[in-house]
Design brief:
Radius of gyration: 32 Å
Main location: membrane
Family: Belongs to the TonB-dependent receptor family.
Number of helices: 7
Strand content: over 45%
Oligomer: single chain
Largest sheet: 22 strands, antiparallel, barrel
Keywords: Cell outer membrane, Membrane, Receptor, Signal, TonB box, Transmembrane, Transmembrane beta strand, Transport
Subcellular location: Cell outer membrane
Membrane topology: Multi-pass membrane protein
Distance between the termini: 61 Å
């Protein structure tokens, strides 16, 4: 193997040493000796309604002296003299300062700051006021999150963010596909199409570490002006998650719980046993007795599916005083899938503590989070197909209770679905732990230093077993697979923030350094067979007895270490809160790429104009906010690469794994990947122009954005090359380009706001056009890439989609259906324009639409009447296509003696030998409108200091969907390079009913 080139740590130690010396010197300058107090101040703090406020932080400004008001709003604090100033702070209220003078009693009233929480946006390595933001950023607060049985936090955002497409089936163990502003790559491995996640400042942290109830807000950074500060990993957008923490002066305890019932929202309309017999009799056909017909009427979908019951519990606590912030949470989720033997069980534990020293100039923090997930799964690819195809005229069991099988039966659906579920199982045990240490120091006024060190460990154990009776391991006497892999990621972040205001000018500076090391695939995987019995399943693999070494298979997942080093800076400037400017630059180096292209630069620049702050707008009372934004930036995509991506790799060549050497069977070793010293990041340049507005004192507000996103240096690993120049006939190179352009609209309005009733509504619309613009250069040339080999009877070598310049990713390339001939046989158009009643050639396929939606939308409404609240969300897409390959495969009247057919097929001629062929006949509209969420709640506020509020609620998810699509559900996965395909692999979507409560103490 070629020598691995490692990035060397640039000279950081000397800089860090000098910075640390200056930091310690500045901190000790802040330590002052305190004189003996000469009195105490007492008082009561109330709100605007003269109600006592507990938990208010009361401190002597400029000193560490502080206290908290009690349940009656009362406090007592020591004072050194009349020159002291008492500071009163409470999250959600405007702070207040009062000079002591000769006062012994100081009573104050705190006024609610309604914009304090809503006006803060996380921008990466800091926060900003919403009015100062020049990039395209959407913030979703916890009270706006979706409600439901959510197995990953990404589902909180479905239908909430313009341009963000989140699709998920009913599978509890599947992660949703998340695509922001269209696909920007033709790679799928390692989350190459996914946004980059940042959790509480930790870049690259796993989103599965968090329970939805622990999240305070989510900021979605869309354009490169906002994302470029994260450099080589931000081309698909950045999602920043902020977890809940105690507010200053607050002590809290909450309990959230729900129970839920899930059911299949729709089944495919297959024939019963009697209906199939009648159909065959009508066409002069009969089933083979006993083997294919024992007189049964078996509904395999009903036997395989079930009602799924779930429950979730979250306990969270926290507190904050003058010197310490602390808190923790525990979350337990049990989610049973609607397919038997599928389930997810997750326990999440989180704790944090922050201690302040030297008059709050130094803050030390530690956060620990662990998510432990156990999942049970089945061989879905087989079960989902066989529950449709398997004959309904056969019973599940033999007289002795064993599963009835007939392995000699040909066609599709040859394995008993119940046997597949109960004689094969997959168990996964995954533990993720994130530990983050934080140091923050105020060196002097305006200058803050932050140092964080995080370590994330992911231990994944995979176990599966096919027993003696398994139709997937006939005569193999049990097949066991065990895999155990550990991935670790260590991230060091060190940066300075400097804020300065002078006159009408405000400047904010950021300078930082990042070091990250990812070690992956530290473990092994092995498959073996031939056990004497099934008692121990996958345990004790040494009890297997394979006949030869070829029956023992080891995973080919080499361990690797990847390093990333980054330097970054940002400057933000505003004048009179009217003219805004931001520029950033990040320099990233990664050991994943070629020696000639290890380092890359990712710049961004943006500007904003708060038009509503201009003097000529003062008399325009109708408009409260009007801001014009424009930005340009470049971000990169390095996801999905390991340390060997650009190197010459030796391994076992395909089709030549063993050879005889000196009388021994030996592994063949040879080159399996060419080296490319010029391999580098994919780079995405985004231009974004936006307008933010508010009308009638923000009763109506929103934004509109237009963007052009161009990705160059697309990486493809199958470029054909000559073996006279290279070891391997395919090459990994940066060649292609892809473009996305679109427009987004977000609107929020308070339609009604009276003393007892409030109605708020939010609407978001997004249009995106995707286009592959190039796949070749002067060195590597390829005209198109065929994708989506769906298989099916006689179609194993066919492709159904094509990646081709001038067309969108997910463009379908299919035979063109021309109706039936006089004999009732399906006909198709050939490339020369003639019509054929036989199966066409692959060269006869034609382009036929694509899977990318033309419009995505979400519309949510919130109603409040006294203590009642009612919320609903409608979302959907328009203009996309779905290839219903499931229906095509089922539509096979000729084979109805050996496999089931849907009612759709009863209208076909029994003589139609081509009915099942995948063609544009089965290319359907994927548009839909879904009532995704409907919740009704009642909040009870008892008159006691110990209980703040209790809310009871009932929620329904996926209550109805309006669509013309004939499959189970139109929300087909839109991620990857083969989006929009339904091919006997869709875990049914569920309809969910939930009751729950939220209690705050």
């Amino acid at each position: 193997m070629k020598r691995m080139y490692f990035l060397k740590l640039r000279s950081f130690c000397s800089v860090a040493g000098k910075a640390l010396t200056a930091l310690l010197f500045a901190m000790f300058l802040g330590v002052s000796a305190f004189a003996q107090t000469n009195g105490t101040i007492k008082g009561i703090v109330t709100d605007e309604n003269n109600v006592p406020l507990p938990g208010v932080t009361v401190s002597v400004k400029g000193t560490p002296t502080g206290t908290i008001t009690n349940a009656n709003g009362a406090y007592t604090i020591a004072s050194k003299g009349p020159e002291d100033v008492i500071l009163f702070t409470l999250m959600g209220s405007l702070p207040k300062e009062v000079a002591v003078g000769d006062k012994k009693v100081i009573n104050v009233t705190l006024v609610t700051d309604t914009k304090q929480l809503k006006d803060v946006v996380v921008i990466g390595y800091g926060t900003a006021s919403k009015k100062d933001v020049t990039g395209s950023i959407t913030t979703i607060k916890s009270e706006e999150f979706n409600q439901g049985v959510l197995t990953t936090p990404a589902e909180l955002l479905q239908g909430k963010v313009a341009g963000l497409n989140v699709t998920k089936s009913g599978d509890p163990n599947a992660t949703p596909a998340v695509v922001l502003r269209g696909p920007s790559t033709i790679r799928t491995t390692g989350g190459a199409m996914e946004p980059f996640y940042v959790i509480d400042g930790v870049p690259g942290a796993s989103i599965d570490l968090l329970a939805p109830a622990d999240i305070e807000s989510i900021d979605v950074l869309k354009d490169a002006a906002a994302t470029a500060i994260y450099g080589a990993r931000a081309a698909n957008g950045v999602i920043i998650v902020t977890t809940k923490r105690a507010k200053p002066g607050q002590t809290r305890l909450t309990y959230n719980a729900y129970v839920a019932m899930e059911e299949v929202s729709k089944q495919l309309d297959m024939l019963t046993g009697d209906e199939l017999r009648a159909y065959l009799k009508k066409n002069g056909q009969t089933l083979i007795p006993v083997l294919n017909d024992d007189g049964s009427n078996t509904n395999w979908q009903k036997l395989v599916e079930r009602k799924g019951y779930s429950h979730n519990h979250n306990v969270s606590f926290g507190g904050s005083n003058a010197a310490t912030d602390y808190g923790g949470s525990f979350n337990y989720l049990k989610n049973d899938g609607i397919l038997r033997n599928t389930s997810l069980e997750r326990t999440t534990v989180r704790g944090y503590i922050t201690q302040r020293f030297f008059d709050n100039r130094l803050r030390l923090g530690l956060t620990v989070t662990n998510a432990h997930t156990k999942s049970n799964d089945i061989v879905q690819a087989q079960v989902l197909s066989n529950m449709l195809f398997y004959l309904p005229t056969v019973s599940p069991y033999n007289p002795d209770g064993t599963y009835k099988e007939y392995y000699a039966r040909t066609g599709s659906g040859t394995l008993n679905p119940l046997s597949l579920i109960n004689n094969n199982f997959i168990k996964t045990d995954d533990s993720k732990t994130l530990i983050t240490g934080l140091v923050q120091a105020d060196i002097f006024k305006g200058l803050k230093y932050t140092l964080s060190l995080s370590s994330q460990r992911n231990q994944n154990n995979y176990n599966s077993y096919y027993n003696h009776a398994s139709g997937l391991a006939v005569n193999l006497n049990g097949v066991a697979t065990r895999k155990a892999y550990q991935n670790t990621s260590t991230v060091l972040e060190s940066y300075f923030n400097y804020d300065k205001t002078f006159g009408a000018n405000t400047i904010k500076l950021l300078a930082g350094y990042t070091y990250q090391q990812d070690r992956t695939n530290d473990g092994f995987g092995i498959t073996t067979q031939n056990f004497s019995n099934d008692a121990l399943t996958y345990n004790n693999l040494f009890l297997s007895n394979p006949a030869n070494t070829s029956q023992i298979a080891f995973d080919n997942n080499p361990i690797s270490t990847l390093r990333l080093i980054s330097y970054y800076g940002r400057v933000q400037y505003s004048y009179a809160d009217k003219y805004l400017f931001m520029a950033s630059l990040r320099n990233d180096g990664s050991s994943a790429f070629g020696i000639n292209n290890r380092w890359g630069y990712f710049p961004a620049v943006s500007a904003g104009w708060n038009i509503s702050s201009e003097p000529f707008m003062k008399n325009v009372n109708l408009v409260s906010v009007l801001k014009l934004r424009a930005g340009y930036g470049v971000s990169g995509n390095s996801a999905g690469f390991n340390a060997f991506s650009s190197l010459l790799i030796y391994g076992t060549p395909a089709g030549n794994s063993k050879f005889l050497y000196n009388g021994n069977i030996t592994n063949a070793i040879g080159p399996v990947r060419n080296d490319n010293p010029d391999l580098k990041w994919e780079a995405t340049a985004t231009t974004n122009i936006g307008l933010d507005f508010g009308i009638l004192k923000d009763r109506i507000s929103g934004s509109i954005d237009y963007y052009i996103k161009k990705t160059s240096d697309l990486i493809y690993d199958q470029y054909p090359v000559s073996t006279t120049q290279y070891f391997v006939p395919t090459y990994t190179a940066n060649v292609g380009s892809i473009k996305n352009s679109g427009i987004e609209l977000a609107l929020s309005a308070t339609i009604v706001k009276s003393h007892g009733f409030t109605w708020r509504t939010n609407l978001n619309l997004a249009h995106n056009k995707n286009e592959i613009t190039n796949l070749s250069n002067e060195k590597f040339a390829i005209n198109y890439i065929q994708t989506a080999q769906l298989g099916g009877k006689g179609q194993s070598g066919n492709y159904s989609q094509i990646i081709q310049p001038g067309y969108a990713l997910g463009t379908f390339d299919l035979w063109h259906y021309m109706g039936k001939n006089n004999n009732g046989v399906s006909t198709y158009q050939k490339a020369d324009g003639t019509i054929t009643a036989t199966q066409p050639l692959t060269t006869d396929a034609k382009l036929a639409g694509n899977a990318q939606p033309k419009l995505m939308y979400g519309w949510s409404n919130n109603f409040y009447y006294k203590n009642f609240d009612l919320n609903f969300l409608v979302r959907g897409v328009l203009g996309n296509k779905i290839l219903n390959a499931t229906l095509a495969g089922l539509n096979n009247p000729v084979d109805s003696k050996i496999q089931n057919i849907p009612h759709f097929t009863t209208n076909e001629s029994y003589n139609d030998i081509n009915a099942y062929l995948i063609s544009d006949r089965f290319l359907e509209s994927g548009s839909y409108l879904r009532l995704d969420n409907l919740s009704l709640g009642y909040t009870f506020k008892p008159h006691t200091q110990s209980i703040k509020s209790i809310r009871f609620y009932a929620t329904g998810n996926n209550l109805f969907v309006i669509t013309k699509y004939r499959g189970i559900d139109p929300e087909i996965n839109i991620g990857g390079v083969t989006p929009g395909i339904d091919n006997n692999n869709f875990y049914p979507k569920t309809r969910t009913y939930i009751v729950g409560l939220s209690a705050s103490f």
